[in-house]
Design brief:
The chain is of the alpha+beta class and 377 residues long. Among the domains are: 109 residues, Immunoglobulin-like, CATH 2.60.40; 75 residues, Immunoglobulin-like (Sandwich), CATH 2.60.40; 73 residues, Immunoglobulin-like (Sandwich), CATH 2.60.40. The protein is 15% helix and 38% strand. The strands form six sheets. It has a four-stranded antiparallel sheet, with no helix packed on it. It has a four-stranded antiparallel sheet with strand order 11-10-13-14, with no helix packed on it. A four-stranded antiparallel sheet has the order 18-17-20-21, with no helix packed on it. Keywords: Membrane, Signal, Transmembrane, Transmembrane helix. This is Cell wall anchor protein.
């Protein structure tokens, strides 16, 4: 027996078997290396909603294999919420393979701010019918909690008119908290206004005398949202200067208008609940009054140049102190019997006057029978 020849044959057989095995592995493994996919994710905190936003990216590689230019998802599973843009492809989809190979596919997943993480798992099939049996998985771990950024979006604007300024306060549509404004003007003017997140703007009027300087701030911030002042428009007409008064007597209410320093006619209207209404027009440089007889329950509504005033009630107005005083009787001449009527010369005079009047009346009666008498004022 030739041992050398036997060993040589055995070595040759082992080598041949190894070569065949490696060739088989290369044959079956080569397609797997030609098709591949991967899943990657990253997360950011959306402070406007208090949610985690996970961005998933699916990369595929067909290895330039002929007929594998597109793919579909046989499986898509995500946790804890669905992924928008990366979903399972139904069997009746048109096209059947809707995604293009070798191009990234991006999807978005929104997760509650207190979640600990997110997951995405996929299985891909290419248009050459190659299936990736090993599912690809991606994991994203959240660090901490995503909270909602509660902050206002304050803004303000100013517009001048003849009477003063109008401050418009807004809190942006994307605001996540109420805006608390403070408006400060001259002569100790100050006003606080709250505008809720996303609400309609709020307007505040500041008189001209308080608008020499306007400063608007929000919350605790000392940085002004707005600084400005009143600027009188060129077409403004100076306001009419007049004085309105009320005099209360023992039996009447007297309204007065003093327009001696005015430049325009003042029109006052008085409407009592008892009796007729009165209108008082007082031209520039003049005065005028309107009088109403006082009686229990009388109420008068008034307006001057269209501006209404509080009603005047007769029962509530203070009358002069001497209205309820009892008249002092005239003392009589002392004498017996408590003072009798005076007779004599005075009585005779009265009787004579009466007789004269009767005579005149008789004459007029006779004349009236003869002709008609017409009296003119």
């Amino acid at each position: 027996m030739n041992l050398l020849k036997s060993k040589l044959r055995r070595f040759t057989a082992v080598a041949a078997g190894t070569l065949i095995g490696l060739s088989g592995v290369a044959f079956f493994a080569s397609p797997a290396s030609a098709h591949s996919s991967s899943v990657q994710g990253s997360a950011t905190c959306d402070t406007t909603t208090g949610e985690w936003v996970v961005t998933w990216t699916v990369d595929t590689d067909n290895g330039n294999t002929e007929g594998a230019d597109s793919y579909r998802f046989l499986k898509v599973e995500s946790w804890p919420t669905p992924v928008e843009g990366i979903v399972h492809t139904p069997d009746d989809a048109d096209p059947v393979f809707p995604h293009k190979s070798n191009e990234p596919l991006v999807g978005t997943q929104r997760v509650a701010g207190d979640a600990r993480g997110a997951k995405l798992e996929i299985q891909v099939k290419w248009s050459d019918d190659w299936i990736e049996y090993d599912h690809r998985k991606g994991f994203v771990k959240f660090h901490g909690t995503c909270g909602k950024d509660e902050s206002p979006k304050p803004d303000a604007s100013l517009a001048s008119s003849c009477e003063g300024v109008t401050v418009t306060l807004t809190n942006g549509k994307d605001a996540t908290a109420d805006a608390v404004f403070t408006i400060k003007g001259s002569k100790d003017f100050e006003k606080k206004v709250t505008v809720k997140a996303g609400d309609e703007p709020v307007k505040v009027d500041v008189p001209a005398e308080n608008a020499e300087k306007i400063v608007v701030t929000e919350g605790r911030s000392e940085k002004p949202v707005l600084e400005g002042k009143w600027e009188q428009p060129a077409d403004c007409t100076p306001p009419s200067e007049f004085e309105a008064g009320l005099e209360v007597t023992c039996d009447s209410l007297i309204f007065s208008i003093d327009n001696t320093k005015g430049t325009e006619t003042v029109t006052a209207t008085f409407k009592p609940n008892k009796g007729e209404a009165k209108t008082l027009e007082v031209k520039a440089g003049a005065t005028g009054t309107a009088e109403f007889k006082g009686e229990k329950g009388l109420v008068i509504d008034g307006s001057i140049n269209g501006e209404e005033y509080e009603p005047v009630k007769w029962d509530d107005e203070e009358k002069p102190e001497d209205c309820n005083a009892t008249p002092t009787p005239t003392p009589s001449t002392p004498g017996e019997g408590g003072g009798l009527p005076v007779t004599g010369a005075a009585a005779g005079g009265i009787a004579g006057g009466a007789a004269a009047l009767l005579a005149v009346g008789a004459v007029l009666f006779m004349l009236a029978r003869r002709r008609k008498v017409k009296f003119t004022a």
